[in-house]
Amino acid sequence: MSIKGPFHHVHLLSENPQLTVGWYVENLGGRIFDEGNVRGSMRYRLRLGEAQINIRGPRPGEKIVPHGGGKSVGIDHFGLSTDELELLLNQLKSKGVKIVEPIFTTPAGGRAFFIEGPDGVLIEIMEAS
């Protein structure tokens, strides 16, 4: 048995999945390729470049707990790559997206920055390598 590919998808929970999906479409060029009710909640599947992001709301009886701020156990962030780091940073700034950490040099010598998405999700944008 072996795992194929870098990853299949990231799944995000949101109190307002339609608003969250709109943010990813508007700010990061996400493309919705599937949507529907899955086990009692709307689920949207998007492509961000080659990455697949699934976003859904709470299911009946589920309670979604908001991000408490600070660091927590589990996934810290997800990363996306671009060939136009400064251009994307400036576009996001002009749209009012929260820049958590401006451009910095990565341990491997590349460059990246962090933004905050809906629901406190931390997203790293890196230069494509």
How would you briefly describe this protein structure?
The chain is α/β, with parallel strands linked by helices and 129 residues long. It contains two helices and eight strands, in the order E-H-E-E-E-E-H-E-E-E. It has two domains: 1-60, 2,3-Dihydroxybiphenyl 1,2-Dioxygenase, domain 1, CATH 3.10.180.10; 76-129, 2,3-Dihydroxybiphenyl 1,2-Dioxygenase, domain 1 (Roll).
Present the secondary structure layout.
Layout: E1 10-13, H1 17-28, E2 31-38, E3 41-48, E4 51-56, E5 78-82, H2 85-94, E6 98-105, E7 111-116, E8 122-127
Parallel strand pairs: 1-4, 5-8
Antiparallel strand pairs: 2-3, 3-4, 6-7, 7-8
What would you note in describing this structure?
- The protein is α/β, with parallel strands linked by helices and 129 residues long.
- It folds into 2 domains: 1-60, 2,3-Dihydroxybiphenyl 1,2-Dioxygenase, domain 1 (Roll), CATH 3.10.180.10; 76-129, 2,3-Dihydroxybiphenyl 1,2-Dioxygenase, domain 1.
- The protein is built from 2 helices and 8 strands; from the N terminus they run βαββββαβββ.
- It has a 4-stranded mixed sheet, covered by helices on one side.
- The radius of gyration is 15 Å and the shape is globular.
